Amino acid sequence: MKRPNLEAGESPSCGSARIGRIGLPGRPAAPLAVLALVVTVLAATACSPSAPKSRVPGDWTSWRKSVDRVLNYTIPGHGDKARVIYVNAPGWEYAGRAGSGRLEFPEGTVVVKEIYASGNPAPGEKPVTLDVMVKAPGDPDSRGGWLWLVKDLASGKETVMTSTFCQTCHANANSPHPYGDKNPEGAFRDYLYFPPKPGP
């Protein structure tokens, strides 16, 4: 049996997709449009870079909040924008075991702080950004054992903050401060001003 021949063009590859008609003995040549479609699909599958994986879980609104009310007083780094804080299950489970003393959250703990456009969001209004802490002490971009990220919800873009600005500001949570329960004993809180509290 005579081998198929490529009458015009080259073998499809990431850099070349010039195709004519493939002739088989006893069969009509395949239409150029069909071959072009096949090559396009194969090229898109084999050559396109995969989208970067999000570090921010999409189900954060199903997590428990570490503080019940909306925070809208002015604080450094966030201004007077309304904020709502969620902590994932590993963070809550650890807090339940650790009690109220020194806290060092396990790897995989995630804290999501919703940031709204103003200090008084309307009912049903969505946040504009997420400020996120991911406990990942082995990551080279971590600071104080946490990855500090900002996610723009309109574009989906996630930015890892590699400076020490966020860590330096949150380091004050490890000593007495004016927020939440104020940490009067100055216990190490692992950079959280509003850590999850033990209880149901």
Topology of this structure?
Blueprint: E1 5-6, E2 22-23, H1 32-47, E3 64-65, E4 83-87, H2 89-98, E5 110-115, E6 129-135, E7 146-152, E8 158-160, H3 165-170
Antiparallel strand pairs: 1-2, 3-4, 4-5, 5-6, 6-7, 7-8
Identify the notable features of this structure and list them briefly.
six-stranded antiparallel β-sheet; globular; two-stranded antiparallel ribbon; Chalcone isomerase; disordered N terminus; alpha+beta; 3 helices; 2 domains
CATH architecture name of the largest domain: 3-Layer(bba) Sandwich
Query: What is the topology, as strand order, of the major beta sheet?
Result: 3-4-5-6-7-8
Q: What is the helical fraction, as a range of percent?
A: 10-25%
Instruction: Please state the CA-atom Rg, rounded to the nearest Å.
Output: 27 Å
CATH class of the largest domain: Alpha Beta
Tell me about the largest β-sheet: 6 strands, antiparallel
Examine the coordinates and then state which fold CATH places here, giving the name of the CATH topology of the largest domain.
Answer: Chalcone isomerase
Structural class: alpha+beta
**Order of helical and strand elements:** EEHEEHEEEEH
User: How many E-type strands?
Assistant: 8
Rounded to the nearest angstrom, the distance between the terminal CA atoms is 75 Å
* Strand percent estimate: 15-25%
Question: How many structural units, i.e. domains?
Answer: 2
CATH homologous superfamily (4th level) name of the largest domain: Cytochrome P460
**Any idea what the shape is?**
globular
Number of helices: 3
Folded structure, characterized:
The chain is α+β, with helices and mostly antiparallel strands. The protein folds into two domains: 5-47, no CATH class; 60-174, Chalcone isomerase. It has three helices and eight strands; from the N terminus they run E-E-H-E-E-H-E-E-E-E-H. Strand 7 and strand 8 form a beta hairpin. The longest helix has 16 residues, at 32-47.
